[in-house]
From TrEMBL:
<dbReference type="Pfam" id="PF01584">
    <property type="entry name" value="CheW"/>
</dbReference>
<feature type="domain" description="CheW-like">
    <location>
        <begin position="27"/>
        <end position="169"/>
    </location>
</feature>
<dbReference type="GO" id="GO:0007165">
    <property type="term" value="P:signal transduction"/>
</dbReference>
<dbReference type="GO" id="GO:0006935">
    <property type="term" value="P:chemotaxis"/>
</dbReference>
<protein>
    <submittedName>
        <fullName>CheW protein</fullName>
    </submittedName>
</protein>
<dbReference type="InterPro" id="IPR002545">
    <property type="entry name" value="CheW-lke_dom"/>
</dbReference>
<dbReference type="InterPro" id="IPR036061">
    <property type="entry name" value="CheW-like_dom_sf"/>
</dbReference>
Length: 176
């Protein structure tokens, strides 16, 4: 019962912050999430609704990081384990599923998809983070800037609009 109340409180605070962010002058703002022991920043304009993980319909012959299809408020969406897709781990351990969340892609991206993350870490904006030097190594197009916060935690931006069109992300079937 306490977990449900804490979740409602967190979602309420996030909703308030999302409203504040939409009414503030335009600055870079992200939903901060943790997955596979790493911090990621999902652009608020590209992230959609947040859900608790629910029942998933598995997809035969899918790659291990494609968890299945979920009904998210009447919309069928493919759910991808973010850490699994990025090669950070094979599966989220059973004991850690209570904090996991599913972040849908914003409907404007025109992809019925969602990312399962290990936990939410709140909202961040560019005034709270310091950009790091640009990495010259080849990275997928969906990887944005790297930032660190006042505590020294590193955050990697993931561009969901680019990820939604990434060929590897869209190929969920083994051997395809």
């Amino acid at each position: 019962m306490a977990n449900k109340e804490a979740l409602r409180e967190l979602q309420g605070r996030l909703a308030e912050r999302l409203h504040e962010v939409k009414t503030q002058e335009r600055t870079l703002s992200w939903l901060a999430v943790e997955s596979g022991g790493h911090g990621f920043l999902l652009p608020l304009a590209e992230a959609g609704e947040i859900f608790q993980p629910g029942a998933l319909l598995s997809v035969p012959h899918a790659l291990p990081w494609f968890l299945g299809v979920a009904n998210l408020r009447g919309v069928l969406a493919g759910v991808v384990d973010l850490a699994g897709f990025l090669g950070l781990r094979s599966r989220l351990p059973e004991g850690e599923r209570d904090q996991a969340r599913v972040v849908a892609f914003n409907p404007t991206l025109e992809i019925n998809g969602a990312l399962q993350v290990d936990r939410l870490a709140g909202l961040r904006n560019q005034t709270q983070l310091t950009p790091e030097a640009v990495d010259v190594h080849a990275q997928p197009g969906f990887v944005g800037g790297r930032y660190h916060d006042a505590g020294g935690r590193v955050w990697q931006e993931l561009r969901l609009a680019v990820l939604a069109r990434d060929e590897r992300f869209l190929r969920i079937v083994k051997g395809a």
